[in-house]
Amino acid sequence: PLSRPGKIFTVFLIMGGVIFYGLAIEMILRAFIGRRFISLVEEARVRDRVKKLKNHIIVCGGGRMAVALIKELEREKQPFVVLETNPESSVSQLKKLEHTTWLIMERDALLEESLLEVNIESAIGLAAVLPTDADNLFLVLSARRLNPRIRIETRIAKESTREKMLQAGADKVISPYSVGGLQMARSILRPDVDDFLELVLDRNNYEFPIKVHTIDKEDELDGKTLLESPFRQEGFIAIGVKMPDGQLLFAPSSEFTLRSGMEVLLLGSGTQAPLD
């Protein structure tokens, strides 16, 4: 049997243990509730910013291709929002590491309510970069139905899926493997040309020097020649013209007449878009 001092010690030991575990549980709950509260506040802030988006681009997916796409959109100061269900995706991890202000919503891009939540009706573009061709195909169908005017671009893993994507409503289908293979072939066969293109497309040193100016019916350039246009004064050279039927004319002469529906490809280091 315990002596009186032993009983007193045991009582204090039990009380101390209860208090210790109680405090530990309280600290854990506070930390959990605090993180949850911060998460809810952040989610509400993102939803509020997304509601105000217009003329934005929706990126569906959070892999490495999405990261490259998002960084380019950020350089161009183009508003965008990302739909991604995986909090451990490349996009989500990079956002945490670099503390970016990217708008990322943990939503399933295959659900129409998710697309509506990110204002697909007022978006100008959607990039489908989900992991599988089947998911991207379903996404293209849904997006085209919700917004017939939006520009949709999608990646494919299998070349056999290309025609299905176009039939589903995609404006452009990109195969990373085909693009990479063609670039490697071009580099081997015409290294000088490839080096020049890399120099032109390099974003690390200066602003992307290729711009496109579309001629519409209200454009003051409709009916004027390239010589009469202000492109040269603004630091641009017309390297090509895309006709309304899709044909491309390279190196047009200064006497070439611009018409509605044409797209002029401009090369230069001008700081402003033509006619801005």
For the report, how would you describe the main beta sheet? 6 strands, parallel
Uncertain stretches: none
Q: Helix/strand-derived class?
A: alpha/beta
Helix share of residues? 40-55%
Provide the residue-averaged pLDDT.
85
Strand content: 15-25%
The radius of gyration is 28 Å
Task: Work out the count of structural domains.
Answer: 3
- CATH domain class of the largest domain: Alpha Beta
What is the total tally of β strands? 10
The helix count comes to: 8
Order of helices and strands: HEHEHEHEHEHEHHEEEE
CATH topology of the largest domain: Rossmann fold
CATH-derived architecture of the largest domain = 3-Layer(aba) Sandwich
Strand and helix layout:
Blueprint: H1 4-51, E1 57-60, H2 64-75, E2 80-83, H3 90-98, E3 104-105, H4 112-117, E4 125-128, H5 133-146, E5 151-155, H6 162-168, E6 172-174, H7 176-189, H8 191-201, E7 210-214, E8 236-242, E9 248-250, E10 263-268
Helix pairs in contact: 7-8
Structure description:
- The chain is elongated.
- The model has no long low-confidence stretch (mean pLDDT 85).
- By secondary structure, the chain is of the alpha/beta class.
- The chain has helices at residues 4-51, 64-75, 90-98, 112-117, 133-146, 162-168, 176-189, 191-201; strands at 57-60, 80-83, 104-105, 125-128, 151-155, 172-174, 210-214, 236-242, 248-250, 263-268.
- Helix 7 (176-189) packs across helix 8.
- The termini are far apart.
- It contains 8 helices and 10 strands.
- It has 3 domains: 1-52; 57-174, 3-Layer(aba) Sandwich (Rossmann fold); 208-276, Alpha-Beta Plaits.
- Strands 3-2-1-4-5-6 form a 6-stranded parallel beta sheet, sandwiched between helices. A 4-stranded antiparallel beta sheet has the order 7-10-8-9, with no helix packed on it.
